[in-house]
Design a protein that fits this description.
With 151 residues, this protein is mainly β. The protein contains one helix and nine strands; from the N terminus they run αβββββββββ. Strands 5-6-4-8-9 form a five-stranded antiparallel beta sheet. A hairpin with a 4-residue loop joins β2 and β3.
Length: 151
């Protein structure tokens, strides 16, 4: 039903607009459209507002390939809020947009911790978070759609 969805969106927008801290969100292995490194691969993100036009994202990765770079990405779908403000079109799906905003490199144990900023157009977004392998651009960890508001 549309009314509960609109209430959820309104609540998320108000909480984020007020600067309420976001809860840590798990990163999990993707379904068939991605690539699984290992069943033990996992991670988490914590997304918070910072200055105007930016989000701060704390990321933790575990069980990844050792000493390996990964691309951090926000992805949206057509008709989702914020899709039009993400900078790149998905190849083969021109209406779907994404932004690759940072790279992290794991240590010798396949772990990484980082805090990165992503600068976005002000507004409401409903996005997925992807961790991609730059060797083949496959998604190796993700968190499904979540709401963020950029001042």
């Amino acid at each position: 039903m549309i009314v509960p969805l609109m209430r959820r969106i309104a609540f998320a927008w108000l909480a984020l607009a007020a600067g309420a801290p976001a809860a840590e969100m798990p990163l999990v292995n993707p379904p068939a459209w991605g690539r699984v490194i290992s069943p033990a691969t996992r991670g988490a993100i914590d997304v918070r507002q910072t200055e105007r036009g930016a989000l701060s994202i704390r990321i933790r990765l575990e069980g990844m390939l050792p000493d390996h770079p990964y691309i951090l990405c926000l992805n949206d779908r057509p008709n989702h809020p914020g899709n039009e403000w993400l900078s790149s079109a998905v190849p083969g799906h021109a209406e779907e947009h994404y932004v690759d905003f940072a790279r992290v490199v794991t240590d010798a144990r396949g772990r990484a911790k980082a805090r990165v900023a992503v600068h976005l157009h002000p507004g409401f977004y409903n996005v997925r978070f992807y961790v991609k392998d730059p060797d083949d651009f496959k998604i190796v960890l993700y968190h499904d759609y979540f709401d963020v508001f950029v001042k």
